[in-house]
Write a sequence for this structure.
């Protein structure tokens, strides 16, 4: 099988490519990634020499390039996106460009060559839950509340529209919050662990009682593997970790694992429009495809903290601005 993985140099995409190369040595993988500030070839250093893996720097909005690649693959798996909610609040332009128009560009190429298409989406499209609401599932109406989630919702709608209108063979996964190795240090886990390792305080937004359903990244990648191979065309699968915790519980776990005290916590101004609670019901993918997360919350948190401790060079380069500055310059100059 020949895979076009878009956005494979980011956090989840790089973990996915590593899993695919390990599980399917005869597959051919092309990784198309623009290397925005969030894309990092160091995420795939250990596999970059594989004969069946090829990296290509490029934009999913580049229709000519996209068509030339789609023509020669069996499936497109789209991870490419602007993904940080706080950045979308500062400026949503790149979110609309990549998440919406970029998705449409990929869909057009998939339509032209009738290729299978998988969209990697998020639970944020469903909005925010009250304390007693049941978890999101595949029938929950979309109610996005941040510019990021609005752009992801728009792209999901487009993907489904191409299925209904053109019979394009698509699937979608809506996953909860991921954590684990190679997460860019602007998201909760990456930022908080590295701050604590540097002896800096961690900025908890508001009261820190917002809840997320945390899933270890490899478990998400295994779910995508199942959906692209056995998922039913036209269907959506919700993926979650049953790792429902408040941000303060996560923060306290970091403090415990690193032997630090409460003085390292700073409560700062809340994120505007901050979604209070996400939770996912994964019954469908468990029942129909036999998926289940393998990594417990305790184990995943330990592994993640250990990974950041063992890979100081990786995140120091990013935090010192070396990569960030280079990639941001590239991004703006394009
Ligand atoms: P990330 O920000 O770490 O990586 C995104 C990647 O996309 C980067 O490598 C970046 O260079 C690339 N990219 C951005 N714009 C591009 C463009 N125009 N053309 C080509 N490449 C481009 O993101 P992530 O956390 O790995 O998320 C991957 C996908 O999974 C996203 O679609 C996101 O919405 C979704 N998702 C993320 C989570 C999470 O918790 N991180 C949860 C559910 C779903
Ligand atoms: O739910 C899936 C989504 O999870 C993905 O679609 C997004 O791409 C991904 O970024 C993530 O979005 P969140 O906004 O939930 O993740 P983030 O790591 O930014 O924040 C997690 C929680 O931690 C959230 O309640 C905000 C809080 N937070 C975050 C940061 C960066 C803080 O309290 N302080 C911080 O500095």
């Amino acid at each position: 099988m020949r895979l076009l993985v878009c956005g494979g140099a980011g956090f989840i995409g790089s973990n996915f490519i590593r899993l695919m190369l390990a599980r399917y040595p005869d597959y051919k993988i092309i990784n198309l990634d623009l290397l925005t500030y969030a894309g990092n070839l160091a995420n795939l250093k250990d596999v970059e020499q594989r004969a069946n893996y090829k990296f290509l720097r490029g934009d999913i909005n580049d229709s000519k390039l996209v068509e030339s690649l789609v023509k020669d693959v069996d499936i497109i798996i789209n991870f490419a996106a602007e993904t940080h909610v706080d950045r979308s609040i500062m400026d949503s332009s790149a979110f609309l460009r990549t998440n919406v128009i970029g998705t449409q560009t990929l869909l057009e190429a998939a339509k032209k060559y009738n290729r299978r298409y998988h969209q990697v989406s998020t639970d944020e499209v469903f909005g925010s839950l009250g304390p007693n609401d049941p978890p999101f599932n595949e029938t929950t109406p979309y109610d996005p509340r941040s510019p990021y989630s609005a752009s992801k919702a728009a792209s999901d709608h487009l993907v489904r529209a191409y299925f209904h209108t053109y019979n394009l063979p698509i699937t979608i996964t809506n996953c909860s919050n991921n954590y684990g190795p190679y997460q860019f240090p602007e998201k909760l886990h990456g930022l908080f662990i590295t701050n604590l390792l540097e002896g800096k305080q961690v900025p908890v937004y508001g009261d820190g009682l917002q809840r997320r359903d945390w899933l270890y990244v490899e478990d998400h990648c295994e779910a995508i593997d199942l959906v692209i191979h056995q998922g039913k065309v036209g269907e959506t699968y919700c993926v979650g970790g049953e790792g429902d915790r408040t941000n303060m519980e996560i923060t306290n776990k970091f403090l415990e694992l690193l032997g630090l005290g409460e003085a390292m916590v700073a409560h700062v101004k809340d994120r505007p429009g901050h979604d209070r609670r996400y939770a996912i019901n994964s019954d469908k993918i468990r029942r129909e495809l036999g998926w289940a997360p393998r990594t417990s919350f305790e184990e995943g948190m330990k592994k993640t903290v250990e990974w950041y401790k063992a890979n100081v060079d990786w995140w120091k380069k990013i935090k010192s601005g070396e990569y960030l500055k280079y990639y941001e310059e590239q991004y703006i100059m394009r």
The longest helix spans residues 93-113. Residues 330-334 have pLDDT under 50 and may be disordered. The pocket of DAU (ligand 2) is lined by residues 83-85, 122-124, 176-177, 187-188, 191, 203-205, 210, 212, 247, 271, 278 (CB under 6 Å).
